[in-house]
């Protein structure tokens, strides 16, 4: 893995997916596997297990960006996205679950379309400085 780090000023071309939050292991930040009934979780990377209701959530925003010369696929993780969403990933996940319950959505991981549109409006066409 290349250890050279730098800053890249680039514009967001598109948002690559509609899942902005994931259940994250508190030890290694890897994605947790929730059982089919959303009762237990398991981390495949470090072996951490627990009850799904105790899982923490983290932001994960996949973007296609462009600078003056190149296109890049990047993923932005964690609390650096809190100011853009206005709440922590934990709180946004609770809001999404509440909205999905009210609308009768059975897939609790589905982001409401209005959230997807808001994220696209906030990021697409805007220029940011990314640490890479």
TrEMBL record:
Q: Which GO terms describe its cellular component?
A: cytoplasm; nucleus
The record's annotation in InterPro entries points to: DDIAS (IPR043522), NA-bd_OB-fold (IPR012340), Rep_factor-A_C (IPR013955)
The UniProt record lists the Replication factor A C-terminal domain at 9-97
Q: Name one GO biological process term.
A: negative regulation of intrinsic apoptotic signaling pathway in response to DNA damage
Task: Identify this protein by name.
Answer: DDIAS protein
Organism for this UniProt entry: Burhinus bistriatus
């Amino acid at each position: 893995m290349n250890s050279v780090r730098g800053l890249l000023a680039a514009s967001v071309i598109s948002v690559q997916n509609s899942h902005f939050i994931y259940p994250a292991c508190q030890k290694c930040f890897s994605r947790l596997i929730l059982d089919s009934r959303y009762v237990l979780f398991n981390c495949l990377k470090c072996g951490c297990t627990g009850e799904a209701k105790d899982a923490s959530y983290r932001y994960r925003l996949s973007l296609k960006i462009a600078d003056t010369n190149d296109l890049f696929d990047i993923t932005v993780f964690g609390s650096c996205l809190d100011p853009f969403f206005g709440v922590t990933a934990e709180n946004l996940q609770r809001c999404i679950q509440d909205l999905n319950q009210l609308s009768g959505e059975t897939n609790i991981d589905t982001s409401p379309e209005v959230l997807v549109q808001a994220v696209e409006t906030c990021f697409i066409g805007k220029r940011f400085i990314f640490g890479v």
